[in-house]
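Z., the sequence and structure:
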Amino acid sequence: MNRFRNCFLALVTISSMTTINMAFGDDHVCKSGFRNINDGDKGTYFLESFVAEAFLSGGKGPTRRHSGYAVVEDPDYQWLNDTIHQLMLPDCYLKDGQAYQNVILRGLAKGITDENNWNRAREKVEELRRKRPNEAYPIVAETEYWYKYAWDARGGGYASSVSPEGWKLFEERLSVAEKILRENKELGSSMPAWYELMVQVQSAMNHKTDERNKNFLEGAERYKTYLPLYISMRNYAEPRWGGSWAGVDQLIKFAANNTKKTEGDTFYAYLYYGVHLNMRDEGNFFKETKVNWPRLKSAYEELLQRRPESLWHLNNFAALACEAGDKKTFLHLRKKIGNTPFDESWGTRPSLDFCDAKYGYNN
């Protein structure tokens, strides 16, 4: 973890393209030496944080000091612009197979919330659009601001806990977000995150379901392998948001089929693992959902064939095998894990110690 932290802190103290080159290599991100730490949640957090720092350093004002470390002033958002374009380059993936561009929206969201001031964040996204009028990502950033601002008014609790004023602000701010997306579709949708945001905004608005589904299908056709689009749609299809496990299963099967030509059945694994993660510590994944363990097992085997260096996939597969009651598969994977487990994969359900004891693993 210290190596990861030190690498990141070294990056955020150097300016613009020098920083990009140091982080990603003189060629581009795909050939970066830092790719060695980019696996699973650790990898996505690294890149999200990098985007966030680039956003926070942009615009007018004093030199920022974020998390206690100096970030150069960048009035024209050149660092952010260079970072986004580097992440959008084709054929750039984390060790687990996720495209680098998948983190862009989350990185912008992190920058917006890390600003810790909604007025200042709004000024920044509006300024970004003025500074970079021919780029798609400022449209995405401004929309994400209004989407996050809407949820700030609503809060993350059950619907019954939201005040009338909270609902009013939630709906008003979502309407602004949708308006930005609609009015800027031609340029904005040159990034797949435009479709991801439209799904999120219209799902939150409820009454936009039919149009949301149309936008989802358009995005899934245009950007077939953009995983966050399917994740957003799957999340809102879950029972906690008024959906059903049958609907989730239908969506995941559609995603796997839609990406089969280039990704095989791996999206079945990616998306059902996300369901498992959403259910962690509550409910029974294999009993309550429509997941098919033989198919999930096969999809993970394919993932590991494609991404043999990913400890994230290896450990996630082992955790799922343990919970599925597949002793043979768990022990086979556990031997590969050895004494270097990927901690992010083992939560309280199931814990690695529990699985070791359950199946009698002894190294």
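Strands lie at 64-66, 69-71. Residues 1-29, 62-70 have pLDDT under 50 and may be disordered.

Let me know what you think.
H.
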